[in-house]
Amino acid sequence: MSPKSNPPGGKLLEALNSTFGNVDKFKEEFTNKAMSVFGSGWTFLILTHDGKLALKRQSFQNSPIMQGNIPILGVDVWEHAYYLKYQNRRADYIAAWWHVVNWKQAEQNFNEALK
Length: 115
Fold this sequence. Notes:
The chain has 115 residues and is α+β, with helices and mostly antiparallel strands. The chain has one domain: Iron/manganese superoxide dismutase, C-terminal domain (minor pseudopilin epsh fold, 3-Layer(bab) Sandwich), CATH 3.55.40. Helix content is 45%, strand content 18%. It has five helices and three strands. A three-stranded antiparallel beta sheet has the order 2-1-3. Strand 1 and strand 2 form a beta hairpin. The longest helix is centred in the first third of the chain and has 13 residues, at 23-35. It is globular.
């Protein structure tokens, strides 16, 4: 996370466009996946063990690493992450989260995962 989000770029942007069509479609799919987490958990953008971008919903403290995947970007949807400010309004929390995504870090994570 970053005080101010910057747009995705480089190889990550190319991969997002190739996989999801464009960044807006990626954000929509990611948000929908995060909204569909039942109870507590996470939603991740991952690089799969076969080198493809995918979305992964994880319950509780489970990690995509446990299945041989590499997390590139993740949002915590446990209630403790947002309840004090957003109460039960997970959608508002996720919408606000997009404004602090650190795309430079996500791109660095992606580039490292490709090695």
